[in-house]
């Protein structure tokens, strides 16, 4: 039963991560916090969820849930995925996600997973991350709601948000892992899926931006290229933090402000991708994305 309840808690956190996300301003510049997706809907949000934003544009959604007692699910979702990649960056959003566990300003390479394991989180089951076409999401599922564990979790996510170091040696060590995932995906099923998408929506930009990327790009990726991409898109105005669990919402809100209020973007902000489908087969131009959700970005065409 506890496993079922934990699964439900994680599902709620994931669902919030999906539906609170909205597009940043078209300029890509930091400014007033972006509107929540539900503000453009006639469906009222759950009044139990506390929605908030920091002055730097980062937003958060908090929900107290006491089933199971003591459990907490945390998701840090960045509005950045493979759609934002240039031709010479295909696959690097996913590569950057891997590098989040390989060294930051205050956490040495390889130490993040060890810290979390000492705190009771199993890598893979409780500590994980995923990269899609539009979002990169970091997942922590805590075994208890102690102040120490919540504080340490927020500290580590703050490191991921802006303090990754991208040491060249660490990049080279992780390169083999990322390439092995690319080789594993290079199979009949994936090739057939690619061919089907090209047939159904020929010329669609999204078809050429699958998260797994391009092997040649992954093999040649440099620290400079990865840091540049990271700093353009890992920014407070593109980020939402979701916490669901047996927590004091007032206290957690203060912790978020203490950890993230000083976060500012570095350099020029990244641009939104042009999702226009090129002219083909006499069809009119339109815009396409596979998973743009939550009202501001259509899941299919607009």
Describe this structure in words.
Helix 2 crosses helix 5 (168-185) and helix 4 (147-162) runs parallel beside helix 9. Strands 1-2-6-3-5-4 form a 6-stranded mixed β-sheet, with helices on both faces. The protein has 302 residues and is an alpha+beta fold. 36% of the residues lie in helices and 12% in strands. It has one domain (2-177, 212-260): Cytochrome Bc1 Complex, Chain A, domain 1 (2-Layer Sandwich), CATH 3.30.830.10. It has 9 helices and 6 strands; from the N terminus they run H-E-E-E-H-H-E-E-H-H-H-H-H-E-H.
* Helix/strand order, N-terminal first: HEEEHHEEHHHHHEH
Number of helices: 9
Strand arrangement, major sheet: 1-2-6-3-5-4
The percentage helix is: 25-40%
CATH class: Alpha Beta
- Under CATH, the homologous superfamily reads Metalloenzyme, LuxS/M16 peptidase-like
Element layout with pairings:
Elements: H1 2-19, E1 50-53, E2 59-64, E3 72-78, H2 92-99, H3 111-118, E4 127-131, E5 136-142, H4 147-162, H5 168-185, H6 188-200, H7 215-220, H8 223-233, E6 239-245, H9 249-260
Parallel strand pairs: 2-6
Antiparallel strand pairs: 1-2, 3-5, 3-6, 4-5
